[in-house]
Amino acid sequence: MEEKNNALEKQIKSLKKIVAQFYEELDDLSEDFEEKLSNLYIINGSLEETVNELETKLKVLNQTNTTEAKLKRIPVDSSMVNAVGYDLSEETLYVEFSNTGYIYAYYEVEVEIFKELLEASSIGSYIRNNVIDCYGYDKMNRKNFKW
Fold first, then answer.
1. Across residues 57-77, what is the average pLDDT?
2. CA geometry: angle at 106 spanning 47 and 60, to 5°?
């Protein structure tokens, strides 16, 4: 009987070792899985950013009439601004101010800024806070400027 008990105890010890190894391997797999999952979230975030950037560029391209002119005038609902336009190839934002009617060209403006401008709840505030004094600019000659 004692031999059977010893044999059973050996089998139990052996099974405990196997179970312990199984849990170690499971922990390793779990860590590997979590790392891969984390990497997938990072990749997904990067892909979403890229898609958003491409959608923005497409939106700008759709708003620009390249067959007739390089630029399309986009009227906006603002007491400060009559209209805006964006030249994607030149990264130039055009703003027609309502109080003077003058058109200013702001240079090296990222397309994301233009997108945010179009979606802003207050166009005037957005331009004051994110465009004026933030980019180089020129006042355009209205007689020679065409939307």
1. 67
2. 40
